[in-house]
Structure formats: structure tokens, C-alpha cells
Specification:
This protein is mostly beta strands. The protein has a single domain, classed as Jelly Rolls (Sandwich). It has one helix and 22 strands. The strands form five sheets. A seven-stranded antiparallel β-sheet has the order 1-19-16-21-13-12-11. A five-stranded antiparallel β-sheet has the order 2-9-4-7-10. The protein is globular. The two termini are 33 Å apart.
């Protein structure tokens, strides 16, 4: 079992059990020629982290750009292609929900104050931007998906919090250039599950516990968060527990 994977280790589907999870699967897909992906018994979410991807799902077709998200319901297939190499992160979670294919444009999310938030405080070096892309209002069985970007050298997921037995989470870092960060995952600070140096393309799974992170001086953290609910339909983003010894005074 591993909690940290570099980008080369993600080219094959990583199954939940390999990451200490129950439901979430992940894969890095590099699209250069035509590629067909079937969802079968999972709902799938694709996040474009490099280039542009042309898609066709039934009679629906279009182009997803950088930071756009494609949602594919169960028992569906999508055809993908790209003139130049594009990179997408594929997340999967079991679902028997009837839902619809969707292309969510990042620009629309960025302009929507209900989905683009600024959390934390500059005084405590934890101000960050969070874009909630697949929210509880979106027709999905288990997904809550978005992106986060820190200030230079700043913290995110602070104060430390955890999702208990309700949700598991995967972070994939992207658009970071030569910057790096430190990702912590722990229940017991003296015996953490993972403390990883994370760079562009890296993945860290959060099966349980607190998961704060911090960027290096001169660099920002930038990552996709994918939370998957263990109970279908239980998708309250703010249903979390803050680590008591830090609490709100550290925001």
C-alpha cells in the first residue's frame, strides 16, 4: 500500500486498495491519438491539466481546455483526442446513479462567487483560492471535486481538518513549475501516514486523518482535490472536523 505516487506511477489505473482507499480510483492519461474510455460501473471525472482535449459522448462533442472538467456517468463511453499531447487526470468512483454527461468550463467556475472562494488569512500565511467545480448541487453520486492554489510559500487545508469516516480524498499536484511543497497526512502527529515532498504531477491519497500542506519559498501549491463520499449522496463539503489543538484561532 502506498499513499504517494509520482506521475509515471499513475499511467496505469491505481485501484483504491493500492492507495489505502475504499472507493476512489485514479489514472494519469496522456492523450495524443484517439482514445475511448468506458465508465462501466463507475462515474468518472476527467480534469485537464495540460493542453486541450476533444471529446465525443453520444451526440455531444466539444473541446475541454486547461482546468476544464468532464463528467462521465456510469455505463457510458467517451472518445478523446488531441492534436498535441494533452494530459488529463481520471478519477473514478462506484455509482449506480442516473446522471448526464457534462463539460464544466473552469472560466465559468472562476467567475462564479458561489464556486470561487478565498479562505484563510494572509497574517497567518494560509490565504488560498479554492474553486469548487463538482459541488453538492451537481448530479453526482459521490464526487466533490475542485482545485486549490496557495499564496507563495503558503499553507492550505489549514487549520488541519479531517473528514472522519464519511469521505476519502486524493490530491494531484499540477501547474507548479519547479516549485515543491510538503504534504502531511496524519492522525497521530508522532506517527504520520505520509509526509511527502510533492512536485508537479505528484499524487497523495488521504484515506483518513488531517492533511495540511505548505509550499516552498518562492513557489505556490496548486492541486486538484477529489473527495469521494463513502455513502452515496452524502456530499456536504463543509462537513469536517478541525484538529482541536489548532482550532479557528490559527486560521
Amino acid at each position: 500500500m502506498k499513499y504517494y505516487y509520482n506521475e509515471h506511477e499513475q499511467l496505469e489505473i491505481i485501484q483504491p486498495v493500492q492507495m489505502g482507499l475504499e472507493y476512489t480510483s485514479v489514472q494519469r492519461i496522456e492523450v495524443s491519438n484517439k482514445k475511448t474510455i468506458e465508465s462501466v460501473k463507475e462515474e468518472l471525472c476527467f480534469v485537464v491539466i495540460q493542453g486541450e482535449v476533444h471529446y465525443q459522448c453520444g451526440e455531444t462533442n466539444g473541446t475541454a481546455g486547461f482546468k476544464d472538467v468532464i463528467y462521465l456517468p456510469p455505463q457510458s463511453e467517451v472518445h478523446l483526442s488531441s492534436e498535441e499531447k494533452a494530459v488529463i487526470i481520471r478519477y473514478g468512483a462506484p455509482s449506480d446513479m442516473r446522471s448526464e454527461f457534462a463539460h464544466i468550463q473552469f472560466d465559468d467556475v472562476d467567475k462564479n462567487p458561489k464556486q470561487h472562494h478565498v479562505y484563510g488569512k494572509k497574517e497567518t500565511n494560509c490565504e488560498r483560492h479554492v474553486w469548487d467545480i463538482i459541488t453538492a448541487d451537481f448530479p453526482s453520486s459521490r464526487f466533490l471535486v475542485g482545485m486549490c492554489e496557495s499564496d507563495v510559500g503558503g499553507w492550505t487545508a489549514w487549520p488541519p481538518h479531517e473528514h472522519g469516516d464519511k469521505r476519502e480524498e486524493v490530491y494531484v499536484y499540477f501547474n507548479m513549475g519547479n516549485a515543491f511543497g510538503i504534504q502531511c497526512v496524519y492522525e497521530d502527529m508522532g506517527n504520520p501516514l505520509e509526509v511527502a515532498l510533492v512536485r508537479d504531477g505528484d499524487l497523495v491519497s488521504v484515506p483518513r486523518g488531517y492533511h495540511p500542506n505548505v509550499g516552498c519559498p518562492g513557489g505556490k501549491l496548486s492541486y486538484i482535490y477529489c473527495m469521494v463520499s463513502k455513502k452515496p449522496g452524502d456530499r456536504n463539503f463543509m462537513d469536517l472536523q478541525i484538529q482541536e489543538i489548532f482550532g479557528e484561532k490559527f486560521e
